[in-house]
Write a structure and sequence with these properties.
It is a single chain. The chain is mainly beta. Among the domains are: 39 residues, no CATH class; 65 residues, Roll (SH3 type barrels). The chain is built from one helix and nine strands; from the N terminus they run ββββαβββββ. The strands form three sheets. It has a five-stranded antiparallel sheet with strand order 8-7-6-5-9. The longest helix is centred in the middle third of the chain and has 6 residues. The N and C termini lie far apart (131 Å). 7% of the residues are buried.
């Protein structure tokens, strides 16, 4: 009888590697009755991708402008001092009579002009003075201010330095 299985195990001889086939485990019958190795089935390994761990959301503390945050994350609040700008110095001295020296570039009629009056208001970009005799108010632009003089002591407290300001 001719082996027509072309090297595959036959139904009659049993399944490859079974007891009683005369072949060691992991072998199957070959063309001339010899044992031919085959790969035994390996257990299936299911690889699951690592699941992302739930991360707690850390919200940093709110830091106000000018505050400092230490390396440990503590927030140190800056003391609330006004910064030393001309506008702030003028605001501390509202109601005082001052002389304001202004320059106006590219003006052929008057390049420099002097204004005298009671300081009524001071903003980031402007000064408002009034003439006590006429009541006329004048709006001066801070960009044109060269300097100002006052005939009395100014109230001025340097930021960050405790102390008493001069009295009026």
């Amino acid at each position: 009888m001719t082996n027509l299985n072309y090297g595959y195990p036959s139904q009659q001889g049993g399944v490859a590697g079974q007891i009683g086939t005369g072949k060691p485990n992991g072998y199957w019958g070959g063309g001339n009755g010899g044992a031919v190795p085959y790969l035994s089935p390996q257990p299936q390994v299911v690889v699951t991708p690592p699941q992302p761990q739930q991360q707690s959301t850390v919200i940093p503390p709110q830091v106000s402008s000018g505050a400092v945050m230490t390396p440990s994350g503590a927030v140190v609040q800056a003391q609330n001092f006004e910064q030393s700008y001309v506008e702030n110095i003028l605001r501390l001295n509202l109601g005082k009579v001052g002389t304001f020296y202004m320059t106006y570039e590219n003006n052929s009629e008057w390049n420099a002009k002097i204004f005298r009056g009671v300081l009524e208001a001071a903003g980031r970009d402007h000064i408002i003075i009034s003439d006590p005799a006429t009541g006329q108010r004048t709006l001066l632009l801070m960009v044109n201010l060269d300097y100002a003089t006052f005939n009395e002591p100014l109230v001025y407290s340097y930021p960050g330095v405790p102390g008493t300001a001069p009295t009026r």
